[in-house]
Specification:
This protein folds into two domains: 57 residues, Arc Repressor Mutant, subunit A (Orthogonal Bundle); 40 residues. It is 62% helix and 7% strand. It contains five helices and two strands. It has a two-stranded antiparallel ribbon. The two termini are 29 Å apart.
Length: 107
Amino acid sequence: MQVKNQILSGALRPGDALPSMRLLARQLHISVITTRRAYSDLESEGFLETVAGKGCFVAAQDVESIRAEQRRRVEELLCRTVEQARQSGISVEELRGMLDRLCGGNT
């Protein structure tokens, strides 16, 4: 998930090489199987591409697909927040006020 977040934030750019699965597993103190599965998942989602004999690289992505993914993630977080607010008896108006404060009044 950290690699995906770095790609979405622009910290990792298309064409950037990722550490080998073995090196990453060693650095994170996790199994190579876990890193292989994570890289495979990211590749199937279109975030990485594997070049035989060279390694894994950040795949070229169009800006709109990245923005769509970011919007999806924000909406998911907002859904959880709205549900928590409902359970806590917080009104829609209170939520809007909180959002306005958090955004500095620029909503």
